[in-house]
Amino acid sequence: xxxxxxxxxxxxxxxxxxxxxxxxxxxxxxxxxxxxxxxxxxxxxxxxxxxxxxxxxxxxxxxxxxxxxxxxxxxxxxxxxxxxxxxxxxxxxxxxxxxxxxxxxxxxxxxxxxxxxxxxxxxxxxxxxxxxxxxxxxxxxxxxxxxxxxxxxxxxxxxxxxxxxxxxxxxxxxxxxxxxxxxx
Length: 184
Prior knowledge:
Elements: H1 4-21, H2 26-49, H3 55-74, H4 76-81, H5 89-110, E1 111-114, E2 124-127, E3 148-151, E4 158-162
Antiparallel strand pairs: 1-4, 2-3
Helix pairs in contact: 3-5
């Protein structure tokens, strides 16, 4: 099973990659396909020891919880679901600043993030042999195997600590934001 912090990292990367490019990053897709084929071979053993709450359901619930926190504190889902094309850039910029500040506070409160590579961007780095392909993506004219030298274009992010609140019991685990009905 993929570690929880890795799943959170994958969820964010996939979310923003789908939003920007319309597709899941290749390294994540490859890992998920290989881990699902490995887990299907182990399924009979797991079925005998499984409890009442499946681990994959728990991870989905946690992903929904993170999205719910971004919605509750930053209204991120409302912003992403809205068609922003009719708004002037000045009005959109002001809204984005507020959403950015609120969502950053959610990250600071619930997830501790660190760069994958702590060097400065646009500086030369050496990628060691045995590097984790999920952590470092080689781009450009990739020839040969690490160790290789290149220019750091993005430091990457990894989750080093997760401190999410307890999940609610019952059916509310799939709710990102409840509907609000004002009674007059």
